[in-house]
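Task card 7
Instruction: Convert sequence to structure tokens.
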Amino acid sequence: MYKPVTYQKPTNGKFTKTDKEQFPLRGEIFLRSFQSRNVALQRIPNQTNAAAPSHDVVEWLDGRLMPLGAAWLKTDKNGRDFFSVTLNSDDLSKTVNFSLFQNQDDENVYDVVLSRQRVKKDTAAESDA
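Output:
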């Protein structure tokens, strides 16, 4: 007998809140060029520069913390906090940008939302036409 499949939203990963102050979020990232189930945001202590990242993005690999990138805690126009993340590990062929937004159904979960690069129009080519 046919059983309907419930819709499952596609995702590039998720992070979950922890009770550890140094590592407030741990999770997983799934991209075509990079996958890891052992990623965390590590709070940068005594950060006073508002333009600097608030967290390092790290991966546990063979019992060591490996740097993957940086994250900035930001607030959206509706007053909700989110993380803007940049991965620039040597494992990646190019920098990857994404955001971590709090899940609407579970306040302890943050969803990975990739940032798509906008294609810039070549204004010089258009003016030649």
